[in-house]
Amino acid sequence: MLVILSDTHATDGHRLRGRTLDAVREADAVIHAGDFYREAVLDDLQREASTLYGVTGNNDDAALRERLPRDRVVGYEGATVAVRHRSRSGATGLVMFGRERDADLVVFGHSHRPEFDDSGDVPLLNPGSYAQPRGNRPAHGEVTRTDEGLAGELVTPDGEAFERFSVPVRSP
């Protein structure tokens, strides 16, 4: 399983709880789409996850900016996932970012609003924020590989899966 997080905005720990904590511990890999906020949060998440791929967000401190890239591409079970915190050009910019990297899925954060959008050329996934939802539902993403591509869901820390989605994966 691939777990997708974003927007922790903490100073001293990962703030994981419930299903989100269990999912991170069970995952083959975890993607964090930025705004850890402080370096201690990254360190704490790395202790829980077997493999963690992070990018910086607009609120991350200098120590995080030295350790993490602004964007990255992650391979998962034959799928290509492009990760960036945000695009100043909105959804169009995120789709272009994904196309330029031949991605099957673009993961992003910033709004704290969990959402999946497959209306463009490349599907977009924002897992929201499990720790600081800011008026939205707290959430993270859980993704698995199927014969057809990727199957995923947005899940609350209490374990409620409130949106399911699928992403076709192109053959190499």
How would you describe this protein?
The protein has a single domain (2-168), classed as 4-Layer Sandwich (Purple Acid Phosphatase, chain A, domain 2). The radius of gyration is 14 Å and the shape is globular. The chain is of the alpha/beta class and 172 residues long. Helices cover 21% and strands 31% of the residues. It has 4 helices and 11 strands; from the N terminus they run βαβαβαββαββββββ. The strands form 2 sheets. The chain has a 6-stranded mixed β-sheet with strand order 3-2-1-9-10-11, covered by helices on one side. A 5-stranded mixed β-sheet has the order 4-5-6-8-7, covered by helices on one side.
Output the strand order for the largest sheet.
3-2-1-9-10-11
- N-to-C order of helices and strands: EHEHEHEEHEEEEEE
The tally of beta strands, per DSSP, is 11
Structural class comes to alpha/beta
Helix content: 10-25%
CATH superfamily: Metallo-dependent phosphatases
- Looking at how many chains there are and whether they match, the oligomeric state comes to single chain
CATH topology: Purple Acid Phosphatase, chain A, domain 2
Please tag this protein with its features.
172 residues; alpha/beta; Purple Acid Phosphatase, chain A, domain 2; 5-stranded mixed beta sheet; 4 helices; 11 strands; 31% strand; Metallo-depent_PP-like
